[in-house]
Amino acid sequence: MTDANAILSTMRVSERRLRHTLGVAEAAKMLAATHFADLDLKTVELAALMHDYTKEYPIERHLELCALFGENLTEDDIENHKLLHAKTGSFLARDSFHLPEDACLAVYYHTTGRPNMTPFEIVIYLADYIEEFREDEGCIRLREYYQKRMAKEKNKNVALVKTLIRSFDTTIKHLMSKGKTINETTIAARNFYVKELARLLAK
Ligand SMILES: [Fe+2]
Ligand SMILES: [Fe+2]
Questions:
Q1: Can you give the pTM of this predicted structure?
Q2: CATH number for the domain including 27?
Q3: Residue 70 sits in which domain range?
Q4: In 3D, which of 40, 22, 107, 126 has the Cα closest to residue 69?
Q5: Looking at the 3D structure of the chain, how many domains does it have?
Q6: For 127, which of 5, 27, 69, 105 could close a Cys bridge (C-beta 3.0–4.6 Å)?
Q7: pLDDT bracket for residue 77 (50, 70, 90)
Q8: What is the average pLDDT across 148-171?
């Protein structure tokens, strides 16, 4: 497996995105240490550094990489091509930087989330949303919501799952307000965690 310098020294992104990436690394380590003691924080950091590694690649490069790594793209993937960086970042995490499979999958699912995410997937997905440098309204509100839930809920899993639901709701509402399509995996993830919350509260 690689180290942080190998990723950072080859990363071609704007200063703003680099700051966001470092923010995700910090937030992901905080979430892992708080909720999932078994996760290796060094590997969590590497996955966080990879999560937007290809974000500024031109679409042609994303399509080339998807073809190279045998990824079949749907019409939705092409239409929402801004999400392709999750797939191509994950291919490079595996192929060029030799990250373990759970880290590569966390990069792969960081934009949409999915039902029944692994702990690794949860920390990267949520860190991307709530890292301290994100300034859009939805992110600021979600960051505050997470902190409030963590202060109030006795069961920290409840705080985490409520925050996940709110993140999906925020994304879905935002896309609806723009008249855009909603990724089916995001809807399935939202429904899964609504049921998961009911299961947790029934205990
Ligand atoms: Fe991303
Ligand atoms: Fe990101």
A1: 0.96
A2: 1.10.3210.10
A3: 4-202
A4: 107
A5: 1
A6: 27
A7: confident
A8: 98
